[in-house]
Structure formats: C-alpha cells, structure tokens
Amino acid sequence: MSNGDTVLETKGLCMDFKGFTAVSSVDLAVKRGDIHALIGPNGAGKTTFFNLLTKFLIPTRGHIFFNGHDITFEKSAQIARRGIIRSFQISATFPHLTVLENVRIGLQRKLGTSYHFWKSERSLEQLTPRAMELLETVDLSEFADVMTVELPYGRKRALEIATTLAMDPELMLLDEPTQGMGHEDVARVTELIKHVAANRTVLMVEHNMNVVAQIADKLTVLARGEVIAEGAYEQVSTNPQVLEAYMGSTETELQGAHG
What we know:
- Helix 3 crosses helix 5 (about 130-135) and helix 5 (about 130-135) crosses helix 6 (about 155-165).
- The strands form 2 sheets. The chain has a 6-stranded mixed beta sheet with strand order 6-7-8-3-9-10, with helices on both faces.
- The chain has 2 domains: about 1-85 and about 170-259, 3-Layer(aba) Sandwich (Rossmann fold), CATH 3.40.50.300; about 95-170, no CATH class.
- It starts with 5 loop residues before the first strand and ends with a helix.
- The protein has helices at about 45-55, 75-80, 100-110, 120-125, 130-135, 155-165, 185-195, 210-215, 235, 240-245, 250-255; strands at about 5-15, 20-30, 35-40, 60-65, 70, 85, 170-175, 200-205, 220-225, 225-230.
- With about 260 residues, the protein is an alpha/beta fold.
C-alpha cells in the first residue's frame, strides 16, 4: 500500500497474452507532484502498462494502488472519478467543434452531465469562463472560436491537454505527448507539460529523450516488459543495461539529450 508521498503504485503487475508476457512483475511508485517518465525501446510494454492503469486491460497478476486504494479491478469510469485521466497518443478531440466547445465538453463531463444532450446553450455558457481560463493555461485563448479540425497539429495536442485538465485530474497520464511534432511544437508542448504539472502529478510515456531530460523528475525504463532501470535522467542515461536495450544509435541520443 502506498504512503502519503506516493500517488500511484503497482506491485508485481503482469500481463500475459497467450503465452507472451507483455508486462512482467512491474513495481512502480509515482511520487505526488512529480513528472515521472516511462521510457523504453519499441515493444517494451509501455502502452500495455498504460492500458492496465486505465483499465483497458485487466492484469493477469499483481495490483494497482491509487492513494492507497486497490483499484486493480475498478472500471475506467471509476478511476476517472478518482482523478486518473489519460490523454491519448492519437489526438482525442472533436474535430468539427470549436476549441472552446471541446473544453466545455471536458468540463461538462466533470459535472456529470455529459450525456444530457438536451442541456440548453445557456447552461453550457456558465462553463465558458472556466473553459477560457484553461485555454489561457495552454496558450490557446486566441483560437477559442476556431474549428478544431483547422488547428495545427501541435496546437491540437495542447487542446487535448486542456480537455484533460478540464476533468481536474490528480494524476495525468500522457501517452506520447510530443509524437509526430516539429521542433517548435515539441518545445511548446514540453513547456506546457512543465507548466500544468506545477500542481499535479504526471506519468508520461515519451520517446523524445530531449523532452524527458528537460522535464522528468524520475524515469522508469522498461525493456521486454520488465523494469531494467529507474532514477534521475543522469543515472538512467549512462546505465549499461539501458544503453544495451536501446542499442547503437540511440546510445548517442540518450547520452546527448542534455547537451
């Protein structure tokens, strides 16, 4: 069971698929207020692990604790109500609604009225001030009335973080937040994650080592479904097991990310 400093903990977490073990006895502790990065080569089990945390999969063995409560067998909706919100690898916004409308939907979900499609426009209007505050947080105020489909890719990811924030998460799970972005967008979203993490906990899967080096308080490295290293970036990036898991070219990337 977790202590007061640990918001999320897994003990002996395993996921088997017909004889193949995707996640093998993973013990993980995410400290309250940290940005904790989960890294590893392709096929390491990172996405499967995220799917276990957000109840898209039920583990074969092991337990998941959130604020000391065993949530191993709770459903997705239950853990969302507890304050665990996942932002998806593929942008999960409504393309033909405006940026502001997307954030209001997130706020409406939080109120528990998301299926009340007959709600009047006036009742949604009361959510606008808070929605605009969130857009300000992610530097999207000027895009409030823009159709989401027209946003540049990096701004869409910022909007997705805003809609995640609208759910008032205690723990944000970010799945590859900078994937597919150009350098300028990566820099913007990296700063954004640092900004929104100021008063909450973030667990993120991320391939970009420069991002991880800049903002992660702690790293956990998975390879073949197992934890092979854990600690600060400086420790992990020089760990021989980690360098071997990433092989060759990524060795330079790992060691040079701070430079």
